From TrEMBL:
NCBIfam families attached to this UniProt entry: PRK10717.1
An annotated Gene Ontology molecular function: transferase activity, transferring alkyl or aryl (other than methyl) groups
GO BP term, pick one: cysteine biosynthetic process from serine
Pfam families, per the entry: PALP
Cofactor: pyridoxal 5'-phosphate
Gene3D superfamilies per record: 3.40.50.1100
Protein name in UniProt: Cysteine synthase
Keywords: Amino-acid biosynthesis, Pyridoxal phosphate, Transferase, Transit peptide
PANTHER family registered for this protein in UniProt: CYSTATHIONINE BETA-SYNTHASE
The Tryptophan synthase beta chain-like PALP domain, residue ranges: 13-308
InterPro entries with a match to the protein in the record: Cys_Synth/Cystath_Beta-Synth, P-phosphate_BS, TrpB-like_PALP, TrpB-like_PALP_sf
Matches recorded under SUPFAM superfamilies: Tryptophan synthase beta subunit-like PLP-dependent enzymes
Length: 336
């Protein structure tokens, strides 16, 4: 029995998440598909890693001082991570979020003591975009810093120094491929860079939802979006600082319907309650696994990110009325 050693403080709970073999996905791919259980972080998402690194980086640079405030624009999970880390270190938190995100994220942020500012969703070019609003608030607030997760490369460093070495160790150096979707780009770029340092032959794939522009960019060099997605926290229309130099070898585009099929299967057959971004990631990992098998790799080992818990989407992905309104298939047990 493998007993985890005790930790000296709560922030040490961030990272070192379990890796689990996904049985259904492995069968579909014809090789081993592994899920990094980022919902096991204290804030129940992968974004805890970036939150810790960005706050520690601001401290190290002398920008964030005792009693200060961390302000960020986020779809929710980064804000939750920031609020928890800030609480542990004695800082205040202000989060600016689009008002179309899940109610659970909003309620969680308020419960954690963060000041929540909701704004209408809009394009990045609009000065009322949540990122621009949060940046201006930080400029106008005494003792505040703007986390700036999209272009703050402390974000991807969390994955270069943390997630990538963990995956290498957990697979005994046998990992063949890695894929995930991009929001800020910190995870895909950081894990890709970290794994390539270990073995440049590891194949790194972007898994993009519809409505995002990165699939087109890495396939053709042109930022062009097609369709739309209801997935929260993923999908990007520009090359962020975190994405600059990302070692992307190949790319896949996954529909919400396909992602939801894997959300459904992972819950009903393997007991994992996840969000749509995780379902999209798993579908991408299957495509990457099939590609590696077709290219002659013997039993390739492919890993992806299980981003957060499905309990954060009870009012959306697990709500029959909401699913029907979005034109998505309703899980059969929700129809009863």
């Amino acid at each position: 029995m493998n007993i985890t050693k005790p930790f000296g403080d709560t922030l040490a709970l961030i990272g070192n998440t379990p890796l689990v073999r996904l049985q259904g996905a492995s069968k579909a791919a014809g090789c081993d598909i592994w899920g990094k259980c980022e919902f096991a972080n204290p804030g129940s998402s992968v974004k805890d890693r970036a939150a810790l690194y960005m706050i520690r980086d601001a401290e190290a640079r002398g920008e964030l001082k005792p009693g200060g405030t961390v302000i960020e624009g986020t779809a929710g999970n980064t804000g939750i991570g920031i609020a928890l880390v800030a609480n542990a270190l004695g800082y205040k938190t202000i989060i600016v979020m689009p008002d179309n995100q899940s109610k659970e994220k909003m309620d969680t942020l308020r419960a954690l003591g963060a000041q929540l500012v909701l704004v209408p969703p809009t394009k990045y070019a609009d000065q009322n975009h949540f990122q621009h609003v949060s940046r201006r608030m930080a400029e106008e607030t005494d003792g505040a810093i703007w986390a700036g997760q999209f272009d703050n490369v402390a974000n991807r460093r969390a994955h270069i120094e943390g997630t990538a070495p963990e995956l290498w160790e957990q697979t005994n150096g046998k990992i063949s491929g890695f894929t995930c979707a991009a929001g800020t780009g910190g995870t895909i770029a950081g894990v890709g860079m970290g794994l390539k340092e270990k073995n440049p032959d590891i194949r790194i794939a972007l898994t993009d939802p519809h409505g995002a522009a990165l699939y087109s960019y890495f396939a053709t060099g042109e930022l062009k979006s097609e369709g739309s997605s209801v997935a929260e926290g993923i999908g990007q229309g520009r090359i962020t600082a975190n994405l600059e130099g990302a070692p992307i070898d190949t790319q896949f585009r996954i529909s919400d319907e396909t992602g939801m099929e894997w959300v459904k299967q992972l819950l009903r057959e393997e007991g994992l309650c996840l969000g749509l971004s995780s379902g999209i990631n798993v579908a991408g990992a299957i495509e990457l696994g099939k590609q590696l098998v077709a290219d002659g790799h013997e039993n390739p080992q492919v890993a992806t990110i299980l981003c957060d818990t499905g309990f954060r989407y009870l009012s959306t992905l697990y709500n029959a009325k909401w699913l029907a309104e979005k034109g998505l298939p309703v899980f059969d047990w929700l129809e009863e």
